[in-house]
Amino acid sequence: MGFIQTAPVLANTYLDDRVLRSWLRRVLPAQVLADHEGRLGEFGELAANEWYPQQLAQRHLEPRHVPFDAFGQRIDHVELSPFWREAPAIAAKWGLIALGQDDWLAQHGRPLQFAFNYLFHPSSELFSCPLAMTDGALKVLQDSDNKALIDRAVPRLLSRDPKQFWISGQWMTETSGGSDVSGSETIARQDERGRWRLSGRKWFASAITSDIALLLARPEKNPAGADGLALFYLEPRKSDGRLRNITIDRLKDKLGTRKLPTAEIHLDNTPAELVGDSKHGVRAIAPMLNVTRLWNAVCAVSAMRRGLTLARDYATRRVVFAQPLIDQPLHQETLADLQAEFEGMFHLTFYAVELMGRIENGQHDDASVHLLRLITPIVKLTTAKSATHALSEVIESFGGAGYCEDTGLPGLLRDTQVLPIWEGTTNVLALDVIKALKQIGGLQHWLTAIRTLTSPITLPELEGVVKQVRESATAVAEWIQKRSRSRDELPAGARGLAMTMGRTLALALLAQHAEWSFRTEHDPRTLHAARRFARLGCNRLTDTVAIEARTLSSDIYA
Ligand code: MFK
Predict the structure, then answer these.
(1) Is the whole model's pTM more than 0.90, yes or no?
(2) Which residue's CA lies nearest to atom 14 of ligand 1?
(3) How do residues 226-266 score in pLDDT, each as one tens digit?
(4) Is the CB of residue 277 below 6 angstroms from any atom belonging to ligand 1?
(5) Residue 461 phi/psi, 5° resolution?
(6) Ligand 1 in reach of 435 Cβ (< 6 A)
(7) Nearest CA to 507 among 477, 540, 468, 478?
(8) Which atom number of ligand 1 is nearest to the Cα of residue 226?
(9) What is the pLDDT of residue 403?
(10) How far apart are CA 496 and CA 322, in angstroms?
(11) Are 481 and 547 in contact (CB under 8 A)?
């Protein structure tokens, strides 16, 4: 037998993660971190050495839809992968939802909850998806005035007891639109007993095995358009496990997220509860979207971290041209760029997580609430794009091996490619940033955040970085100012604007952490990351030229 290449090895994903651990040391009180470090280490061990190998070994075991039983009875059974059968119990036991609302942890609950889920995502066969939706549903129900639904569902969603724990779906998308839900065709009617019943077709019902779902439907006398939609709650299954007036037409044949059972379904007089108002369903479900968008970002940085860890380990084991890859200057440049990009995206994401924790635990002043409203779509779209690019580079860094399914790497890329799509595409979220800017009265909260982060920085090594952050922030303000009176220019350039705002904030956050880590931990690595991220650049602002865009997008010369 000739040469055999050693495979990359995944170490304990918590103990091995300098960036996460350093961030937790900065943001959590020492006692809170000390109380949880053991469990984070245990969880990181399971993620690396139990769940990830199981996922690789069982990569062919995808969910299967069994529409009929042997005698022709419609059963719509969905067979799940072994890990998916076990995952709800893991989530309950480890408090993957409950931690975020632990009274005792107060604002520290969210950072801890998302730290665990960040460790979980790339070893979870995308069970992070129903967890995100569960967390979002929890928020919507808790914010509603519907005491009956709160009493019924909230304790289940927050339960740490696997027998009690429920997960939620979020069924918004219809054939008429995923981004624009205003044309939703599902109709809600009240039966003779006044109970709501829904009929229609949902086109992307993810985690179809969920215990509950939140969805939009139009009460039959309501007007067309988004405002006429209302938010409903339903429990899809009866106590015997059979679906309740729901037919699964088929499971989606998706590019990635293949362990996640996403279904096309029909509702036929399916009983449901109105969550609140019989109109304004989009407004009512928006808090759920904002939670899942943050989860999306956490999953993006988590996937970046997993890919990078494997690529780095592989580079220490792979010798070419008489030298380990890790010692070769060009490969070092490639991995260093990825690491800097990852660190920027990590701090951007977890800044939003920390802000959410503070707002939910008392700091609900207008400035914080407005800042979170504005940065949520920015964080989601910036991290999702960055992660898809990073995972593509990771694959390439393995050469041909990275292109082979049994390394597990192609799956990592495919699962990441969903992140810029679901929960709002990059363009839809960029337009949401424009809407948010209008709602909250402009840039001032974002500019204040940038100033607050950079003003205390005194390390001379960060002078250039801080200068760049400030120049980029000024460029953003000027760009908006110049286009504020144009009807089309602002939306046409929204993607570049949102990316620039995301990257500028990320750089400010990297600088803040670099200063802290250098002074407190005597570790210069975040400093290096900040300077490199600065060289990768923040400014993605574009001068849009309408005639060019019209001509080239249609490729018609008129
Ligand atoms: C692993 C992590 C992720 C896991 C999740 C996986 C699950 C996958 C399943 C799915 O993909 S579910 C589908 C996800 N779908 C979307 O994310 C929809 C994307 N489209 C949008 O976000 C559009 O912008 C939107 C549908 C919201 C636009 O609809 P409209 O009809 O033009 O609404 P409009 O006028 O923008 O907003 C209506 C109201 O909602 C307004 O309030 P008012 O009625 O008081 O004026 C808005 O302010 C409010 N609103 C909209 N978006 C908001 C919001 N409020 C707060 N935050 C937001 N993000």
Answers:
(1) yes
(2) 423
(3) 999 999 999 999 999 899 999 999 999 999 999 999 999 99
(4) no
(5) -65, -15
(6) yes
(7) 468
(8) 31
(9) 98
(10) 43
(11) no
283 lines ligand 1 (CB under 6 A): yes
Q: How many CB atoms lie within 10 A of CB 539?
A: 16
H or E element at residue 507 = helix 494-516
Alpha carbon dihedral 220, 225, 226, 228, in 10-degree steps, equals -30
Instruction: For residue range 369-395, list pLDDT tens digits in order.
Output: 999 999 999 999 999 999 999 999 999
Rounded distance from Cα 374 to ligand 1 centre (Å): 13
Nearest CA to ligand 1 atom 43: 283
Q: Give the C-alpha separation, 294 to 352, whole Å.
A: 8
Residue nearest to atom 57 of ligand 1 (CA): 286
**DSSP per-residue string spanning 235-256:** --B-TTS-BSSEEEEEE---SS
What domains are defined for the chain? 168-281 (2.40.110.20), 282-558 (1.20.140.10)
Q: Centre a 10 Å sphere on the Cβ of residue 286 and count the other Cβ atoms it contains.
A: 15
Rounded to whole angstroms, the maximal C-alpha distance in the chain is 80
Query: What percentage of the chain carries pLDDT values higher than 70?
Result: 100
Dihedral over Cα of 33, 37, 43, 48: its sign: positive
Residue 1 has a pLDDT of 81
What tokens were used for 485? 């009176």
Residue 322 CA to ligand 1 center (angstroms) comes to 54
Tokens of 384: 């999702």
Q: Is the CB of 426 under 6 A from ligand 1?
A: no
Q: How many Å lie between the centroid of ligand 1 and the Cα of residue 289? A: 6
CB of residue 61 inside a 6 A radius of ligand 1: no
Query: How far is residue 334's CA from residue 536's CA, in Å, rounded to a whole number?
Result: 12
Ligand 1 neighbourhood includes 125 CB (under 6 angstroms): no
Mutate to test the pocket of ligand 1, among 283, 301, 421, 425 (most ligand atoms within 8 A of CB): 283
Q: Is the CB of 128 under 6 A from ligand 1?
A: yes
The reported pLDDT for the residue numbered 323 is 97
Residues in Cβ contact with 414 at an 8 Å cutoff, skipping those fewer than 6 apart: 255, 256, 257, 258
* Residue 118, ligand 1, Cβ within 6 A: no
